[in-house]
Amino acid sequence: MSLASLSAPVLSRIVSLSVAIANHAGKIIRDVLKKGELGIVQKENARDLQTEADRAAQRCIISSLSQCFPKITIIGEEGDEESKQISGKVYDPTPESTIQVTCPPHLASLGEEEIVVWVDPLDGTAEYTQAYECRKSGHQGVCLLDHVTVLIGIASGGKAVGGVIHQPYYNYQNPGSELGRTIWGVVGGTVGGMPIVAPPEGKLIVTTTRSHSSSTVTDAVDAVCPDEVLRVGGAGHKVMLLLEGKAHLYVFASPGCKKWDTCAPEAILQAAGGILTDIKGSPIPYQASVPFRNSTGVLASAPGQNHAFYSAKIPQHVKDNLKA
Ligand code: AMP
Ligand code: MG
Ligand code: MG
Known about the structure:
This protein is of the alpha+beta class. It has helices spanning 3-6, 10-35, 52-68, 79-84, 125-136, 215-223, 235-243, 259-272, 307-313, 316-321, and strands at 41-42, 49-50, 73-76, 115-123, 149-156, 159-167, 181-186, 191-192, 205-208, 228-231, 249-252, 275-277, 298-301. Helix 2 runs antiparallel to helix 3 (52-68) and helix 7 packs parallel to helix 8. It is globular. Residues 44, 47-48, 123-124, 209, 211-212, 233-235, 254, 256-257, 261 line the site of adenosine monophosphate (AMP).
């Protein structure tokens, strides 16, 4: 990083570096798919998979961040084994390729040791592996590569304070357009990388999971009386729909999401004026010591929506089903 940037607040420098690293992780993800050697491993169940892209992207993100910021705590979805492999593949961006990120005064004096970084190296693995199958079978089947994101969430004092979402396949269906985009934000500061658009007035569009549904997930969605439901992949992708005016609410009454799924999206959404909480409307904690699982679900609303109103509409039996 440039000498000038060394005088910038730690949070600004971490977000700035995370943007560059997330872009690089996106290249790794595209290269693994191009090569076609996915090395799929089943984690908790058959709907919870890990690929070589998840592993390689996490190795790159964690080794690159920890080289520059050795005192931050980094927690990655793919576990310690992948995290601790400082494999020599550190990505060190040139000063010209890093952006300037402004930091609000109340976060400007944060020290490295006060920061916890939650990394989801590839959010939307279900859609990534389905796209691989689709390509292998000559495009018979589901190809939703734009649902895949890289998530780097920065927390301090148990709160999400900054985040980066990189979408490696943005524009993949528009040949000739630039492939991929990256959005970043600092709470109390600004959002960069995409224009924030308000969702249409006079209707309610809800986004939810397409591959991890259940009766409580459906009951919660039905309870807010949506005019339209977008069942799409990825926590990062769904929050992007809120930011770009394509949905008003993200409703997920399930314990399936983890802290690395929500930290970066929450920070960026909050920076844009939206809200992300659990399904009951309570804040999600992000200290390094908390359980990884968001056991009380996720509810997120686009800027300008009445979050508390929708949280109150979630049926009591759904809330009772999601115990901390
Ligand atoms: P989805 O909206 O289904 O794409 O899920 C968003 C994120 O939460 C992804 O990282 C999923 O892997 C994770 N997730 C949600 N539900 C589950 C589940 N039942 N088991 C494992 N991971 C889940
Ligand atoms: Mg994820
Ligand atoms: Mg993941």
